[in-house]
Amino acid sequence: MTRISRFLDLQDEISDFIGKAISWMSLAMMAVLSYEIAARYLFNSPTSWAHETTTMIYGTFCILAGVYTHRHHGHVRSEAVYHLFPARGRAWLDVITGGIGLVIFAVFFYVVFEFAADSWAKNEHSSKSTWAPPIYPFKSVLPLAVGLMWLQSLSHFIRDLMVALGITEPREEVTEQ
Amino acid sequence: MLELDPLVVTGGMFGCMLLMLILGAPLTWALLTVGVGSAYFLWGPAGLELLAISTFSSMDNFLLVALPMFIFMGLMLQRSGITDDLFDMINKLMGGTPGGLGMGTVIVCALIAAMAGVSGAATVSLGIIALPAMLERGYDKKLATGTIMAGGALGFLIPPSVLMVIYAFLARESVGKLFAAGLMPGLMLAGIYIAYVYIRAKMNPQLAPPISEEERVDFRGKLAALKALILPGALITTVLSFIILGITSPSEASAVGAVGSIICAALYRTLNWQVLKEVMIGTTKLMGMLLWITLAAVFFSKVYIGLGAGMVLEEFIEDTALSPYWVIVAMLACYFILGMFLDDFAIVFITVPLFVPIVDTLGFDTIWFAVLFIISMQSAYLTPPFGYNLFYMRSVAPPSVSIYDLYKAAIPFVCLQIIGLALVVIFPEIALWLPEQIFGRYTLKPLMKKPPFGEVFCF
Fold this sequence. Notes:
The complex is a heterodimer. By secondary structure, chain A is mostly helical. Chain A is 71% helix and 0% strand. Chain B is mainly α. Helix content of chain B is 73%, strand content 0%. The longest helix of chain B has 34 residues, at 273-306. Chains A and B meet through helix 1, helix 2, helix 3, helix 4 and helix 5 of A and helix 1, helix 2, helix 3, helix 4 and helix 13 of B.
């Protein structure tokens, strides 16, 4: 039991850490794009790398951000019917949808792992600009994010199952915005 | 691969997705589950490769960089104290006339909408600042809350708008054109709200009394109050002109706006580490949600269209022989109903790939339809049971305002929005005049052009 709760706490901490760490990437995107605009208009020497770099930061930022969002139950859902159920009934619904989610994310992980591995094997480089950076590190973010999403889903699943079985109390309703 | 009737595929996929949504699954989960299930059963394991491609295409897209930037900008400005300053200005300029504060609130909402791309920003910040001020002066609580909620919803129509960026991404439209098309209808709606408050205050001054004599300022005081407009004005002009005039790409302009919002906060002396971290983490949380819906919806649509089911809706419309305008009305009615139960982001992802090709085939302008869609989404924000602005308002309003007061407060403004919507349907020029001026002759597309259905959503 303690081992499970230690996993749950650790998973929350990992997701929170990731959220805080990647949140700085929004500033990085601003910096790169501002540099590009300045280089283009003030110094008349547009860069070849700014747009692709920003896109890569954006992609990494957003896909990993999903893990943080998931940890704080921030993924949009329709609560019209869901809220008609009592707390334990909701927990059972979460167990069902969360369980399906675990299977889906496992499949998802397998698919994107192959996708990234393929890119490494081909030593794939971008063909979007003359800069042509290697693209496999960017694609590797995919399995990382989906894997973390699976772990976070597992953590939610265990918590919901414990509520559903009456082992623990339902979590407080957080209404934040 | 199994050969299935497109109607069965449509019914099956959307039925399963709705079932999962009803069970309380997040939209991303519902879309992924149904997409993965359908792809696997109909194409086998090879079909799942689409999942990786769809995901990567949502990550590897320069246009979408504008989303985190606009969200950052909105969240930063919300905390920057810019609203206090603007409301103070309105108080001095218009407080002396009946209904002045109410009309001024709409103006502040429109200004915030031109700086922030999300709808909650204006509602929350004005709910905190303007609502207590108006209630103190004896404003009718329904009129006061309704004005703020409706004004707050302008955020999606007046550019920059996050919803428009997503629409542009899905329908492969130009962000600049969409932004230009949203500006006039947005100002028109703001004008309608102002006229409404003015008429109500004229008919019954009890509803919206002027501020007391001591609080008013003379002409010089009014002139001095106008300096509150300098910073927001500069920020709005820079970002919008960059995008609409095509000086930079929308993504670059959004980064300029985000940097500008930090500078604004610094000049208002509200910038500190705490605020910056809150804004960054808020952006992270929202973007995580948005990107994961995007990738799931892109995948879902690719599977759906790949299965050849995209024709169903089009054939259905051909069979019923509805006149094109009735099809548009039916779609808008559909938005209105969906808006009661689903989030606007959910609606845009589900319906754009289905509706926009039809609108295009019918010979209507898709930019015009985008504006209609966004106005409908504003009503969605005000209609119970799930109107976001109702919740935002409830969370900041004093206890004397009940959720039922808010429901009643929203009704006249929803009617005004429907009037605005009807005006844009009848006079498409309201939306299309500005893009026409900027991007050249830009008329309704001829009916003869018939693009292959579903192409809109293939990347």
